Amino acid sequence: LAAPGGQNLMPRLAIRLKKLIQVSPGPRLGKERPAVWALVGPTGVGKTTTVAKLAATFSLRHRLKVGLVTLDTFRIAAPEQIMVYGNIMDLPTRVAATAQEYAQAVEDLRDRDLVLVDTVGRSQSDRENLAELQAVLAGVPRTACHLVLACPTRSADLKLALEGFGLFEPQSLIFTKLDETSISTKNAVLD
User: Fold this and answer.
1) Which DSSP symbol is given to 116?
2) Is the peptide bond before 170 cis (omega within 30 degrees of 0)?
3) What is the per-residue DSSP string for 62-79?
4) Using one digit for the tens of pLDDT, what is the confidence trace for 138-155?
């Protein structure tokens, strides 16, 4: 992947990454609507920001009817943050803390094509809190979980996160904070 004088390194890296990483398609919109995507992952990886970016992409670029739900009632002002994103994009937004509230929130958004769910960040080794989140998500059995991980995370910690969050049976991995890492560190993501 060497480039003389560093010239054209990024395009070469992009080509290499495209060959190594399969990009997930958008939501599968079947008979049962809405499609429900929950973003799970450790604290601080950018789940809330990623929910907002996905909402903007799917609603503005792909013209899908998107709704937002946050299950993060733990972090200070987390519900308000997702509500602000919803207001900016004119998307209906709900807050839920229990499996029943979550099921009701998705039911309230049944006219949407896609519901994006922001979850509370948890340590991959905190089995009790992970089980609690899993129980809430079980309120909507068709929820597809997507694991969010930050690129600057050390390889060993990425592996631990994959193991810990494996109980959610993630449909895909979403890598954030690519701009906060060096090219050599990006190799840890590919290991």
Assistant:
1) E
2) no
3) S---EEEEE---SSTTHH
4) 999 999 999 999 888 888
Dihedral of alpha carbons 116, 122, 125, 131, sign: negative
Number of CB atoms found within 10 A of residue 48's CB: 21
Distance CA 92, CA 113 (A): 12
Q: 94-99 — which CB contacts under 8 Å span 24+ positions?
A: 94/67, 94/68, 94/69, 94/70, 95/69, 95/70, 96/69, 96/70, 96/71, 96/136, 97/71, 97/73, 97/136, 98/136, 98/139, 99/135, 99/136, 99/137, 99/138, 99/139
Say if CB 117 and CB 91 are below 8 A apart: no
How long, in residues, is the chain?
Answer: 191
Q: CA dihedral in degrees (52, 28, 172, 170; nearest 10)? A: 100
User: Residue 114 phi/psi, 5° resolution?
Assistant: -145, 135
Per-residue pLDDT tens digits for 54-108: 999 999 988 999 999 999 877 777 788 888 898 999 999 999 999 999 999 999 9
* CA 149/CA 171 separation, integer angstroms: 14
